């Protein structure tokens, strides 16, 4: 039995191996998607622009989870905590210190990176369900911590904080929503390019080596502890930036917006988008934003059940998420080209 | 000291709830190697069925047995219909399936029986147990049932052919198949048993937390925590873990200043994680040695 077969036989790999080239889109497709994202807001109403902004923001948060789980093989149910820290950093900086909203993003990123990196330390010894429980604990603790009395002066306690929505700069003839959309789009694209490059770099290969086989990775000289915590840090930082953008877009932060439900949604988004496939994040985000609404539209009383059934349908048809659809599309295109 | 013993006793009483749930969690984990997030909702639905039976005039113990049988069948049906097709799908997709099942059951129960809180009868009565104000006869009965259940499971897994086959199918499926065990049905059987144990847990818990579609939310979290603390591979560990979590929770609420009801859960979880950092496979879990 060769080494590779034995690992499969052991069956403890939580995340399947995705080769790094399969993690991204081709240049042509990327440009088409980019063009669509750039032009779309011109034709739609403000509310839809707001929804598209939220789509990008959730997409970013799902992307962050994808780097952690799809990239380094660590499972997290605690993403909502990082999202909350990012959102609160921005809200507190903007409302108490009058910091410009754009400047709060990198600060939130750095704060969350530190938080994630530190959280990654005790989480190092845990894996699989044990890590899931640890991150889950973080997610359930976060809303309670934000409500603590001695933080109330800064966080506004249960009431939360109201965040002012920024106007378009330089007198650009744009609504606030549209400006925020383009602002978010720029941030998201920058982070997407960063993530793609990260996964192609030495660190990215180290993440994937750890995901595929921790023992083999450490035997090859990968500093497992460092890269695992680093993956947590990077994922937390990106989630935090998504949280900041979310706070600005929704104009409001409150402890109960960042419960475990959010973390579960992000997890579902990752599965639906395809674990380890970065472009799928946006598909996953679309699923978690729109499908609950569709479910509510079908039946008010049974919206949860309809949502569950729809989710089941998706995972039956495409157990590997949107990635599978993309691969099938690619094969189909290849066959058509041959004919 | 008086306060301490009282809090420990109260902790054991609530711990019995968690132990029951943790036992169901471990059972299904043994059979399918995943944590079933819908376990609590399945238990809640079973409890509602027994309640409905009692509303129709069925006596308690008859309803109890009927519910167990129904839950067992339902568990097998859920596995055959919903999760067997996902057997080859990635683990995380299965987890998404559990979340979907959770949403479906929770929402259906809400529609059928609505969200108002219902009283649920207890067969043990609720008088103080042996003169102690902290443990009622119901809670004592619950602890008794949990211990009996644990013993029963121990004998089932240790001394029956089918128990052995189930353990084999869970730990080394390939080899189990080679010696002629139908591993696919062993998984279904595991689901059935876990659902039935969940039903017992639900029916014992309902008189304490009252019956409503969201009754299992908190209990399941503690149940998971207990199962993980005790080690997911050990039913005995799950029960011990359940009692420990109950005691932890009560002591944290009493002795750490500033901890109200709100912070009880995070602190209990933080304690559990500290234990896990020292013993990553749980207190009684088997260490899985990985090969390259």
UniProtKB/TrEMBL annotation, chain A:
UniProt keyword Lyase, yes or no: no
UniProt KW Protein transport keyword: no
Topological type in the membrane: Multi-pass membrane protein
Protein name listed in UniProt: Branched-chain amino acid ABC transporter permease
Entry-linked InterPro entries: ABC_transp_permease, LivM-like
Subcellular location: Cell membrane
Residues annotated as signal peptide: none
A cellular component annotation (GO) from this entry: plasma membrane
Alphabetically ordered keywords of this record: Cell membrane, Membrane, Transmembrane, Transmembrane helix
A molecular-function term among this protein's GO annotations: branched-chain amino acid transmembrane transporter activity
Record-annotated membrane-spanning stretches: 22-42, 48-68, 99-119, 126-146, 179-199, 230-254, 260-290, 302-319
One Pfam family this sequence matches: BPD_transp_2
Organism of derivation: Bradyrhizobium barranii subsp. barranii
TrEMBL record, chain B:
GO biological process, one term: amino acid transport
Compartments where found: Cell membrane
One CC-aspect GO term: plasma membrane
Source domain of life: Bacteria
Keyword terms: Amino-acid transport, Cell membrane, Membrane, Transmembrane, Transmembrane helix, Transport
Transmembrane segment boundaries: 12-32, 60-83, 95-115, 135-157, 185-209, 265-285
Membrane topology: Multi-pass membrane protein
InterPro entries: ABC_transp_permease, BCAA_transport_permease
Molecular function, one GO term: transmembrane transporter activity
Family in the record: Belongs to the binding-protein-dependent transport system permease family. LivHM subfamily.
Protein's UniProt name: Branched-chain amino acid ABC transporter permease
């Amino acid at each position: 039995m060769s080494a590779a077969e034995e690992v499969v036989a052991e069956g403890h790999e939580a995340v399947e191996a995705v080769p790094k080239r399969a993690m991204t889109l081709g240049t042509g497709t990327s440009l088409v998607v980019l063009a669509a994202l750039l032009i779309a807001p011109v034709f739609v109403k403000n509310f839809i622009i707001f929804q598209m902004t939220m789509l990008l923001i959730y997409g970013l948060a799902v992307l962050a989870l994808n780097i952690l789980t799809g990239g380094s093989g660590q499972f997290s149910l605690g993403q909502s905590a990082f999202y909350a820290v990012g959102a609160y950093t921005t809200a507190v900086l903007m409302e108490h210190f009058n910091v410009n909203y754009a400047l709060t993003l990198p600060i939130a990123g750095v704060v969350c990176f530190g938080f994630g990196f530190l959280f990654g330390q005790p989480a190092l010894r845990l894996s699989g369900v044990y890590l899931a429980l640890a991150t889950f604990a973080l997610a359930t603790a976060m809303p309670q911590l934000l409500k603590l009395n001695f933080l109330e002066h800064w966080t506004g306690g249960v009431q939360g904080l109201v965040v002012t929505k920024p106007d378009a700069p330089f007198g650009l003839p744009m609504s606030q929503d549209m400006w925020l959309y383009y602002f978010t789009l720029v941030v998201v694209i920058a982070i997407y390019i960063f993530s793609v490059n990260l996964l192609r770099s030495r660190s990215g290969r180290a993440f994937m080596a750890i995901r595929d086989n921790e023992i083999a990775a450490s035997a090859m000289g990968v500093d497992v502890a460092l890269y695992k915590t680093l993956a947590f840090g990077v994922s937390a930082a990106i989630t935090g930036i998504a949280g900041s953008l979310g706070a600005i877009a929704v104009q409001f932060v409150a402890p109960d917006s960042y419960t475990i439900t959010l973390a579960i949604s992000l997890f579902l988004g990752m599965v639906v988008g395809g674990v380890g496939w970065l472009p799928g994040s946006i598909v996953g985000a679309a699923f978690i934003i729109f499908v609950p609404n569709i479910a509510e539209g079908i039946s008010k009383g049974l919206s949860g059940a309809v949502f569950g059934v729809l989710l089941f349908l998706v995972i039956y048809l495409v157990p590997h998420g949107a990635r599978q659809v993309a691969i099938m599309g690619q094969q189909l295109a290849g066959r058509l080209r041959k004919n | 000291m008086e306060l301490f013993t009282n809090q420990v006793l109260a902790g054991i009483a609530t711990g019995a709830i968690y132990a029951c749930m943790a036992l169901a969690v471990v059972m299904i984990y043994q059979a399918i190697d995943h944590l079933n997030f819908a376990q609590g909702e399945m238990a809640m639905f079973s409890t509602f069925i027994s309640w409905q039976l009692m509303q129709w005039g069925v006596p308690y113990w008859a309803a109890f047995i009927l519910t167990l049988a129904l839950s067992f069948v339902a568990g097998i049906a859920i596995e055959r219909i919903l999760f067997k097709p996902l057997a080859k799908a990635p683990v995380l997709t299965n987890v998404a399936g559990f979340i979907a099942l959770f949403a479906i059951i929770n929402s259906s129960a809400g529609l059928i029986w609505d969200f108002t809180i219902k009283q649920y009868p207890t067969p043990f009565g609720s008088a103080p147990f042996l003169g102690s104000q902290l443990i009622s006869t119901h809670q004592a009965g619950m602890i008794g049932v949990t211990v009996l259940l644990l013993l029963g499971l121990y004998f089932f897994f240790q001394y029956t052919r089918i128990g052995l086959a189930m353990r084999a199918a869970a730990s080394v499926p390939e080899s189990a198949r080679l010696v002629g065990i139908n591993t696919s049905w062993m998984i279904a059987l595991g689901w059935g048993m876990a659902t039935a144990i969940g039903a017992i847990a639900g029916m014992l818990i309902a008189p304490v937390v009252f019956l409503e579609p969201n009754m299992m939310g908190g209990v399941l979290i503690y149940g998971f925590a207990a199962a993980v603390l005790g080690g997911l591979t050990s039913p005995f560990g799950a029960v011990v873990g359940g009692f420990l979590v109950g005691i932890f929770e009560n002591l944290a609420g009493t002795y750490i200043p500033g901890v109200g009801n709100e912070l009880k859960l995070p602190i209990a979880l933080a304690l559990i994680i500290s234990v896990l950092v020292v013993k990553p496979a749980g207190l009684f879990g088997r260490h899985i040695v990985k090969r390259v």
